[in-house]
Amino acid sequence: MFAIYKRELRSYFSSAIGYAFVAILIAMSAAVFSVTTLLSYTNDISTYFTVMLFILMVTLPMLTMKLFAEERKLKTEQLLLTSPVSIGGMVFAKFLAAFTVFFVTNLLCSVSYLSLFAYSEPEGGIILGNIIAITLVGAAFIAIGMFVSSLTENQLAAAIGTFFFLLVMLAIGMLNSFIPWYPVRFVLDWFSLLSRYTNFTNGFFDFSALFYYISVCFVFLFVTCRVYERRRYGA
Predict the structure, then answer these.
(1) Are 101 and 63 in contact (CB under 8 A)?
(2) I need a labelling partner for 182 at 20 to 30 A (CA). Which of 8, 91, 93, 133 fits?
(3) Is the pTM of this model over 0.70?
């Protein structure tokens, strides 16, 4: 499993994808932070983190689009399916590699909002809660993107498919308040990534949201494993 993890991590920076993701996310994060916080003369970072949620929706498919689609296109997935590593270990190794790139980049982005402590007294607990929230959301996005990537050999199709998948899950949270029937709202709320994230941006550490994002990761990693199990035994 560790060999697959190292190979995937190395592959991000043997091509332009890893560098492009890091550069774009840091640049967009700095721009949003400047507009929502520095130029607004405020230490309220809730708007910044809300906008970052949508930025991740656009940028994270760059990391996940190649994870399985490239293997199918290059006809190397058979090597993975016949390797001594279990399918679960293979899927988790790829997830961990993408998450590592995202996590380290997110830490670099944190330099911006940690600079608030240099000239003001922001709520440290709120900042920590938001850092945890954005990390959990990023992990969930990556798991979803991996599942989409496992369904196609076209990297562009995987990226676009992931983007629209995430867009629908975020849109559900925005549109849910306009639905008058509570049973429908209750069901749709389970699929909403936005409603749970909002609690963190407002300074509330929501343990149910923590469980939800972990559950989303587990579900999509599980179904990705099922996709490859069917291919292994169908091959």
Answers:
(1) yes
(2) 133
(3) yes
Closest CA to 232 of 78, 90, 106: 78
Tokens of residue 190, six digits: 């389970």
68 with 56: CB under 8 angstroms? no
Q: In three state form, how does the secondary structure of the chain look?
A: CHHHHHHHHHHHHCCHHHHHHHHHHHHHHHHHHHHHHHCCCCCCCHHHHHHHHHHHHHHCHHHHCCCCHHHHHCCCHHHHHCCCCCHHHHHHHHHHHHHHHHHHHHHHHHHHHHHHHHCCCCCHHHHHHHHHHHHHHHHHHHHHHHHHHCCCCCHHHHHHHHHHHHHHHHHHHHHHHHCCCHHHHHHHHHCCHHHHHHHHHCCCCCHHHHHHHHHHHHHHHHHHHHHHHHHHHHC
Number of domains comprising the chain? 1
Residue 235 has pLDDT above 60, yes or no: no
**Tell me: the pLDDT tens digits for 152-198?**
889 999 999 999 989 888 887 677 667 777 677 677 777 777 777 77
Give the rounded distance of the alpha carbon of 90 from its chain centre: 19
Expressed as residue numbers, the domain containing 91 is 2-234
From CA 141, how far away is CA 46, in angstroms rounded?
A: 20
- Residue 15, burial from CB neighbour count under 10 angstroms (0-12, 13-18, 19+): exposed
pLDDT tens profile 194-219: 777 777 777 677 788 888 899 999 99
